[in-house]
Write a structure and sequence with these properties.
- By secondary structure, the protein is of the alpha+beta class.
- It contains 17 helices and 30 strands.
- The chain has a 7-stranded mixed beta sheet with strand order 3-7-1-15-12-13-14, sandwiched between helices. Strands 9, 10, 11, 16, 17 and 18 form a 6-stranded mixed beta sheet that branches. Strands 19-20-28-29-30 form a 5-stranded mixed beta sheet, sandwiched between helices.
- A hairpin with a 2-residue loop joins strand 12 and strand 13.
- The longest helix is centred in the C-terminal third of the chain and has 26 residues.
- The two termini are about 55 Å apart.
- Bound molecules: pterin cytosine dinucleotide (MCN) and dioxothiomolybdenum(VI) ion (MOS).
- Pterin cytosine dinucleotide binds next to helix 12, helix 13 and helix 16.
């Protein structure tokens, strides 16, 4: 548990909701004072190193551990022979686990890079050396390498993802103007700066785990289910995370191995997943392919959208990367049909990666819209505005708020879109071809309950306490601002304590749902604390307000006073002293009132009370419009994004400085997706060949231009207590199509499979 003490960062106006306060934990991070999961000192620590399969499919027939066991410092080698005594855990929704054994080091190999053995030794170096000596014999079976493998087939239809209204087939045939195109996106990976790993320690039947987590309560529950323990026996500690991007929302096989090894050995065990092992310990964004057919009138009114998509999944779980997620809600259309398939291949199950579903979906529909614009000889901005969706045609519900028109028009204005010559290859800068393109994006508002505690200490400091997570997105800071404003206490008097499953429950830092959810709980708790303080101050013996007949007080700058000029005042230390209390504690949650305490506690470790964007009377989403400029060198085929302007509707912004950083971060990842990122699979053995940051390219500073971001949102009080919508993911959605569209405008070449690398342009 770490206590964050905000320092002065600019004026006091920065400290309230909507202020531009700098990250309050920033100094701890840049000075190296913040402690990460693998840095906790633990006495008697042993170190585990994973051994991973080198075949895509088959059976482990023998693991020869003799030389590893006789290697210096080795304490234990775990193989598929060892029954670790684990049971399968439940899913995110908290649905009861199947009563089956769980083998994190399985005998059946399902993908290349699967963990099948682990060596535990006194030091990490000794474990790594011995892991090289473990020799595995397989009975190999033919595997399916990836989506392009001829053995992969067309996959399974996921009927629950099919969406249709009107008669799309008939409307398409009748449409005077039609386009049809196939789009593809490759495997992509999170590449968080902090790799996966954990330190696991048992104290009797209590399991303590230091592991980067996007969801402390959910992970505690899932670990507990593996070990057949009550949830409260597992404690996840995760105050700082070096990025997650969707990869750290659940415990993974290596975590089960480390915790089981610690139990077997009777010593704490640390397991650091190496960078290459990160690529197969949790899946990245699945490779996708999709076909989009659009029909329109000659003046550009959409008549039909037909979408057929597929993504690769593993052979053991059907994980959709829903390429039809944005297609039905971006435009007004009376005839629509979408179907999604999953294609099992021998890979680790794909995972959630910033903007899952919406991201590849926007690549398809936003490229297709520009292809239609060219077929119609119409400005792509005009085409988008012409087909503006006045409500959600999929659910039939009105939008809660949708400022996408403003995003398109204000973004276009700031970018200078009206100066565009529409003809491909018509614009130049020096000897480079210049291209401009648009891509829209969206991400749903997901709502979840949360709980928070406010503690007022006798020294006047205020603590905001929550088990929620800050993986860099800004939770610490916005919670200090929320409490400061609601309580009337300066922000540098507020400390924020996060990242521990022993603390009050919270939504996952995922699905862009945490900020809206946890600010609601903190706001509620802080208002209750304020009322409590005022009540106590009016009644306290020796209180200057006691005989004034007043029935309320104001709190400003940490001082209580009557709402009049010449009022006596009292600060928080004085109040607590007069009450003889060393602290005051208030806890509030946003669950329904009538839940039993037991049901309340259960709610934090599962998502049974999470609400999707159309569960109420409205359809609620964040929106954006990206405008990209590229410079293409015709001789070398190199593409550089030279300018981006992006306009967003994310409702009210709790902290615009942090939001702008979130948006830019998403856009930078989108530039990587458009031009660089691609997991390359060896077709012979299903191995991820570029499983390191030297070969799997992500953008560097030199790849990133000026990025101008604009907020066009208005407060949306249906979306959240304070009026904000989700911010963390929408930024990446629509970037890749904006760049692909710009590359077409520059070169006249339409690249429909990402990334847009030079060999596709020459
Ligand atoms: N915010 C705001 N006003 C709003 C909404 C959000 O000021 N109306 C700001 C706050 O600083 C808040 C942040 O934006 O902390 C993100 O809020 P939100 O959109 O609710 O997203 P979450 O807090 O749920 O964070 C998860 C989200 C996801 S799902 C991914 S993936 C992602 C992302 O955040 N991974 C990240 N941003 C990331 N940023 C960093 N640095 N590292 C990651 O791994
Ligand atoms: Mo974000 S991919 O939902 O963690």
């Amino acid at each position: 548990m770490t206590i964050m003490e905000p320092r002065k960062h600019g004026s006091s106006a920065d400290g309230v909701v909507g202020g531009r306060l700098s990250r309050i934990e920033g100094q701890l991070k840049v000075t190296g004072a913040a402690t990460y999961a693998l840095e906790y000192p633990t006495e008697g620590l042993a170190h585990a190193v994973l051994v991973q399969s080198t075949v895509a499919a088959g059976r482990v027939v023998k693991v020869d551990t003799a030389s590893a066991l006789s290697s210096p410092g080795v304490l234990m080698v775990l193989t598929p022979e060892d029954d670790l005594g684990l049971r399968v855990s439940g899913d995110w929704g908290g649905n009861p686990p199947e009563d089956l054994p769980y083998h994190p080091l399985p005998r059946e190999v399902q993908f290349n890079g699967q963990s099948i053995a682990a060596v535990v030794a006194e030091t990490r170096e000794q474990a790594a050396e011995a892991a090289r000596l473990v020799s595995v014999t397989y009975e190999e079976q033919p595997g399916v390498a990836d989506l392009d493998d001829p053995k992969a087939g067309e996959g399974k239809l996921l009927a629950h993802l099919s969406v249709a209204w009107g008669d799309a087939e008939a409307a398409l045939v009748a449409a005077p103007v039609r386009i049809e195109a196939d789009y593809r996106t490759p495997r992509e990976y999170h590449c968080a700066m902090e790799p996966h790993g954990l330190t696991a320690k048992w104290e009797d039947d209590q399991l303590i785990i230091w592991e980067p987590s996007q969801w402390s309560h959910g992970m505690a529950r899932m670990y507990a289910e593996w070990f057949s323990l009550p949830s409260e026996n597992v404690r996840i500690i995760s105050p700082f995370i070096g990025g997650g991007f969707g990869s750290k929302g659940q415990p993974l096989a290596f975590g089960a191995v480390a915790a089981a090894a610690a139990r077997k050995l009777g010593r704490p065990v640390r397991l650091a997943v190496t960078r290459p092992q990160n690529f197969t310990s949790y899946g990245g964004r699945a490779a996708t392919r999709q076909t989009i057919k659009l029909g329109a009138t000659p003046d550009g009114i959409l008549q039909a959208i037909i979408h057929r998509g597929a993504n690769e999944t593993s052979v053991y779980a059907d994980v959709p990367e829903q390429t039809g997620a944005a297609t039905p809600i971006l435009y007004k259309v009376e005839n629509f049909s979408s179907e999604s398939r999953v294609v099992p291949v021998n890979t680790v199950s794909p995972g959630a990666l910033r903007g899952p579903g919406k991201n590849p979906s926007a690549f398809g529909i936003e490229c297709a819209m520009e292809e239609l614009a060219y077929a119609l000889n119409m400005d792509p901005l005009e085409l988008r505005l012409k087909n503006y969706a006045d409500h959600d045609y999929q659910s039939g519900k009105p939008w809660s708020t949708r400022q996408l028109r403003e995003a398109l028009t204000q973004g276009a204005e700031a970018f200078g879109w009206s100066k565009r010559n529409p003809a491909p290859r018509s614009m130049r800068k020096g000897r480079k071809l210049l291209g401009w393109g648009i891509g829209c994006g969206t991400f749903p508002v997901i709502q979840a309950p949360s709980e928070a505690m406010i503690r007022i200490l006798s020294n006047g400091r205020v603590e905001v306490v929550s088990g929620s997570i800050d993986m860099g997105q800004g939770t610490y800071t916005i919670l200090a601002q929320t409490a400061s404003e609601a309580l009337g206490v300066p922000v540098d008097q507020v400390d924020v304590v996060l990242g521990d499953s022993r603390l009050p429950g919270a939504a996952i830092a995922g699905g862009s749902m945490l900020a809206g959810s946890i600010t609601g709980a903190v706001h509620k708790a802080a208002l209750a604390a304020r009322d409590e303080l005022i009540g106590l101050a009016l009644g306290a013996s020796g209180s200057p307000f006691r005989d004034t007949g007043a029935n309320t007080l104001t709190i400003q700058d940490g001082r209580l006073s009557l709402p009049r000029e010449d009022s006596p005042t009292m600060n928080l230390p004085e109040l607590l002293a007069s009450l003889g209390r060393d602290h005051i504690e208030i806890r509030r949650n946003t669950l329904p009132e009538d839940l039993s305490l037991q049901d309340q506690q259960k709610s934090w470790g599962n998502m049974s009370r999470v609400q999707g964007p159309t569960m109420g009377d409205y359809s609620m989403h964040s929106w954006c419009a990206h405008f990209a400029e590229v410079e293409v060198d015709e001789d070398f085929g190199t593409v550089r994004v030279s300018r981006m302007v992006s306009a967003f509707d994310c409702g009210r912004l709790y902290n615009p400085r942090l939001v702008e950083s979130q948006w830019r971060g998403g856009i930078i990842m989108g530039i990587g997706q458009a031009l660089l990122e691609e997991g390359v699979v060896d077709p012979r053995n299903g191995r991820t060949m570029n499983s390191n940051l030297g070969d799997y390219l992500v953008p560097t500073n030199a790849d990133i231009p000026d990025i101008e971001v604009i907020s066009v949102g208005i407060p949306d009080l249906r979306a959240s207590a304070l009026g904000g919508k989700g911010v963390g993911e929408v930024g990446i959605v629509g970037v890749a199509p904006a760049i692909a569209n710009a590359v077409f405008h520059a070169t006249g070449k339409r690249v429909r499979d990402l990334p847009i690398t030079l060999e596709k342009l020459i």
